phosphoglucomutase (alpha-D-glucose-1,6-bisphosphate-dependent) (Mucor saturninus), 557 residues
Amino acid sequence: MVNILTVSTQPFEGQKPGTSGLRKRVKVFQQENYTENFIQAMLEAIPQADGGPKNATIVVGGDGRYYSDEVLQVIVKASLGQGVSKLIVGLNGIVSTPAASNIIRQRKATGGILLTASHNPGGPDYDFGIKYNCSNGGPAPESVTDKIYEISKTIKELKLGDAPKIDFSKLGTQQVGDLTIEVIDGVNDYVDLMKTIFDFDAIKEFFNNNKDFKMLFDGMNGVTGPYGRRLFVEEFGLDDSSVMRCVPLPDFGGAHPDPNLTYAHDLVETVDKKGLDFGAASDGDGDRNMIIGKKAFVTPSDSVAIIAHYAKDAIPYFKKHGVNGLARSMPTSQAIDLVAQKMNVEYFEVPTGWKFFGNLMDAGRCSICGEESFGTGSDHIREKDGLWAVLAWLSILAHVNKEKPAGVQDILQAHYQIYGRNFFSRYDYEEVDGKTAEDMVNRLRHQIEKKELIDKTINGFTIAKADDFEYLDPIDGSVSKKQGVRIIFKDGSRIIIRLSGTGSQGATVRLYVEKYSNDAKEYTHETQTALKPLIDVALELSELEKYTGRKEPTVIT
Ligand code: G1P
Ligand code: ZN
């Protein structure tokens, strides 16, 4: 027996889950009862459709970042308080986000709690995050996150089991009162799943037949290190030097575990210096990915389009199940739409955040999807999946090289020859003042409402349409409003401006620009040069510098 203690508490402001769970500085979570409040609200909000918290089976995992150990103990206590019957926890609380999504589905669990702030830096002075996933393995939809927030605003009493400190460093099952805790290895199930999707022998054969082909995977000191080592070194037999930063560290070694050209700089430099053929990285919790090649950077928008193009030929999972629809987040370039049109399948444009793909996938209407923010995935799970994308690219390389030698740049150029090229870039202005950022967006919203922007021409670009993106979910009919200011020009170019929903400090302005070209002479042009005129238009229209005081973005991707 374990006593359930009743502890009085008070609501905290701002426990509103953002694009992907609640992310705050560690110090915020460390406030007395802050984490307890949120976890209890999360458990109470488990949808009745999934059976509610009582007798629930919950998968718990995370990227192992600083403060995870303490929060794991809170989850045990709160679970006892809510009558949860089983927790399935990764060894030391570590499971990548995609692997957790898989475990929820495989074990038919009620849901999952993921302890991660994804690619945000970790450590005592940085970020922690908690997010809830439902029984389909995907991030909770807004109906659930809204309920969590509502509960958090009125919570007065905590029910916490008086449990001893649980040791999560040993595999196996333990019993605490009525709660069963099973500690599992988070890597095995995931690797098994990948073997059902990809042709591991074909990839191995490709490496064996092309001994000069060199790759490097960067785990960025995050959760995917052990997964990456297992796949590339143990399964494919590559040299130890084909992986780097593959030991998960609670502070990611002080690095920013976000796979892009800025933060995965070491990888980019090594690939360049050593003339490697393929480089890949994933983020802190393993759902994001970056793909590069010899003198080649694959934008995530192109990556998902290219994967979709080759899927049925290069990846057994899609040979078997077909490609039943494609999707992208609104700011992501329209490259994948062109592939969908050619394949004659449905395609969707959803708001930013992976949670919006789940309904489409559950309904069998979306097989492959992606976001410009280095998120790529498919309906094998309900999260984006970094290593899946890397394996997809290796499968494409293996497939294409059966015909003739081709590297990443050749695959890109071949794609542009068929579809044209969607130049795309995102400018991030981090930690700007929240109020002025809101004012800047509101000014644009106001101009849109008054229809002041239509037919305006700047730098030769004429505005055809402007709106604040609104999404009607075709499956459950829910409507998500104010998902980003979108300005579309007569030539199909687009500018999008929205505020980040994952930051933990101040506001982050995201500015996205896209320009399409079907002039073959332009396919090798450098992205920033190709987009410069459009970026100037975006800066002029938004008056970004005036509002934020920033001359340069913090990060360009
Ligand atoms: C960002 C990305 C978004 C992604 C999310 C979680 O959200 O833009 O595409 O789904 O991280 O990885 P944002 O900070 O823009 O709200
Ligand atoms: Zn992530």
In short: The longest strand covers residues 421-432.
